Amino acid sequence: MELSFLSELQVLRLDSNRIESTIPDDIGSLSMLSQLILNGNGLTGTIPKSIVNLGNLTDIYLSDNILRGNLFDVETFRNLREFRVDGNILTGEIPSSFADIGFLDFFQINRNRLVGSMDFMCNNLPLNYKIDCDGTSPEVICRCCIGCTIVSDDECDANEDLAHITISSGNDDYSFSWQLYKVTTDEFDVPAYNLIAAGGEYDSNEQIDFQLCLSYPGKYSFVTQANSTIDSGAGIDASIGESDVSVGPQDEIEFLLQKDGSLVVVVATPSPTPSDEYFYFSGDSYPPASEYQPVGGGRPGESSTAGHFTGAPCFNVIIQLQTDFFGDETSWEVVNILNGAVVANVAPGYYKSNATYYEYQCLESDGCYNFTIFDQWSDGICCESGNGWFNLSVNDRFLYQGGDFKASDTVVIGGSCAADVPASGACPDYESPINVTIYTDESGWETSWEIFDGITGQIYTTSDLMEENSVQTSNKCIPKSNCTAFAIYDLAGDGFNETGGGSFKVTYGGEPVAIGSGDFGFQNVTYFGMNCS
User: Fold this and answer.
1) What does the H/E/C string look like for 220-266?
2) pTM surpassing 0.70?
3) Residues 6/10/15/17 CA torsion (nearest 10 deg)
4) Given 74, 260, 262, 401, which residue has the most CB atoms within 10 angstroms?
5) pLDDT tens across 70-83, in order?
């Protein structure tokens, strides 16, 4: 079969047929192809080398065929989201270029004859993977993969403790996922999160038990994501040394494993209830804005210490999407408008129809961002072809809800967008000057702050990376608003150390609006303006 005349083809789907042939060598001529779905046939031979020319591929489904030979280099596949070649007779080692794919969600290479190590993927491990590592030969070695890390106590080194971990998926199988990180710091005490193990895409009410060795002294973080309104049974129970720790369906738990093997929880973000978060499961249409309230609240001139943001020096964006009858038409991107760079995106063809998705992004605080959602057929996601909707939240605050658009809808997220106050000291007529002065304590790297519109949630400006026992001053021009908010955060949840000092002062239009010091917990938010309700 000749394929070269199909140069504009975007989706090649011939799955679950009885095609007994080889994959044509000219498959590489389909340069516009985004989905190659040939699973469940009787394809033989090797995977053509020309496949590396298909740099637009997001999905490769070659499962359950009779393909032989080696895996191909994926260096050109920067948009690859799903890679499924399980159930063939593939041999050789896994190319190291898989470690460089930033958006890989599914990686299924089991039921083959592959060998070697895939430890190079441990810092960028897909949430959903299936490999052959059950102790039979041949097998793939992976120190960070669940099912490949079953060890006994005598296999742990002298400075390690054995962790017994039980994963419960809850009632909504695809919703629950989790990650275990080891937290390290560089010479400037900036934290880095190194992925140790992860999992997701479970069956309903599934329970998975595994064991691994954790070194001490060390800091670790469990993070879980789930539909908190349905997944009441999801969570993690871990027994580490002589200590126990439990993680709910939408939690973040950081703990110290100390030299004596004891465990101390240092950060615990409790599972939110539906009223705390913005998860919503629509019946007839996407939810009205009145059903969403910022976490923590607050009143004009008052401070709120509710909520928790753990992203310093970045801020967290949560995209919640309910697709319509044509989910594959929907895509989105986040663009840093300061340099035009696309910092996160999902391409068309990825989303399923009538399904709910949650996307979590941690954006660097020195950018200024717009979010844009697209529909290929220019009819939005509500309400001509179903009742789809999307919600956007930033740093635990609801920002925007929508769905009834045409070709696209753009939302200003914000960030470090505000301009410096000019040398003349006068901002434009439509802006007001705001001054922020922070005196950090002994753990300055834990501190961050932001200024945002108290009504829309749009971020005007954010902090630079803080240092301990130092002074940071910011003078910006921000839009005049009926309600503005200043929020200061502390990663450890103890505010400023009273013995080590630390304080903040904010003036707006020359008048003080926020002053504080001492232990303010995880965050302190002050709203000011004429109409903060």
Assistant:
1) EEEEEECCCCCCCCEEEEEEECCEEEEECCCCEEEEEECCCCCEEEE
2) no
3) -20
4) 74
5) 998 888 887 888 89
